[in-house]
# Entry
Amino acid sequence: MALSACGPLVRPYYNRDVGGWVMPNSSLTPTAIAPKLGPLSGDAERLRKVVESYLGVPYDFGGQSKSGMDCSGFIRQVFSEVYGIRLPHSSAAIYDRGQFVSRAELRPGDLVFFKNFGFIDHGGIYMGKNYFIHSATSVGVSYSTLDAPYFGDHYAGARRLTGGE
# Structure
């Protein structure tokens, strides 16, 4: 049986509430396929071109290049390229930067963060229509929705960075 690398990777996950393995909704799973976000303008369109140039780059803990990157390395690289902003290589340290943004006020370019066991352990870049792009350990740089398994339950908040950060 041949495996295809052309579509989204959909894997079952264990759900304690159900007491077994569950096949997730494929629209909520990390995917290297860019969703239809509609037209963006100015910096947001430039941001989209840069982030999507990294789609499919594999996950590599501590990495920050096209050969592999982790979530904070991805954010760091993109914000350096698009905005000229230097950021630390840690999601928790990046979370301490910028201005708090409510989930209802998210706009493309805002950073979204997730926590596990009380600590910020993951981050990504919000791109609109409930989608964010990040480097996921399972599939590398990919799009996910904020309501996807794990992300919906572990959402910690969002930050908006300005030129002086």
